[in-house]
Design a protein that fits this description.
Shape: elongated
Structural class: mainly alpha
Number of domains: 1
Low-confidence stretches: none
Largest sheet: none
Strand content: under 5%
Radius of gyration: 20 Å
Distance between the termini: 17 Å
């Protein structure tokens, strides 16, 4: 059961990382298209800023889980290095639990935000008039992926199956 949770969390984090990278690639392509349109034709696409922001939101939101999985989050290591391995694991587990509680709060409110914007049919104040709930779906998805990866990380800590440096199991 624990191994299944770890595989699920880390597998979904990999998919989140793939989609995150894809969004960054699309953001680069969109920015390049805007530059070329202005330089060659003297016109703007008029959606670059708006959709670039949406792509950045999706990229960041879906990338949190993989960042945790790959041990790439910024940590304050002063306390961790001052204690022994038993207390280090306890601190890491406490950090996972605290982060999970904060993540649950964010997940709950972001789902509410998306549902409210869908129900009220709130549109972006732009020429594209994008329904805001569409790009905002990435926020609760990102929180859910991060929460699942936090559970997988906690399971690794509890079972002693910590990942080796470089992202291998």
């Amino acid at each position: 059961m624990t191994q299944r949770l770890i595989r699920l969390g880390e597998g979904l984090s990999s998919w989140g990382a793939f989609l995150s990278a894809l969004c960054l690639g699309l953001l680069v392509a969109l920015t390049l298209a805007e530059i070329l349109a202005r330089a060659l034709f003297g016109v703007s696409l008029l959606i670059t800023s708006e959709y670039g922001g949406y792509l950045l939101l999706v990229s960041v939101s879906l990338g949190y889980g993989a960042t945790l999985r790959d041990d790439s989050l910024i940590r304050i290591t002063m306390v961790r290095t001052a204690v022994g391995p038993v207390w280090r694991k306890r601190l890491d587990l406490a950090a996972c639990l605290l982060a999970a509680a904060i993540c649950c709060f964010g997940l709950w409110h972001s789902v509410g935000m998306v549902l409210d914007h869908k129900e009220l049919d709130i549109l972006a104040d732009s020429m594209a008039e994008t329904p805001l709930w569409i790009p905002q779906i990435a926020v609760p998805l990102g929180f859910a992926l991060f929460l699942l990866q936090l559970a997988a990380t906690a399971a690794r800590i509890l079972t002693g199956r910590e990942r080796a440096k470089g992202g291998t199991a």
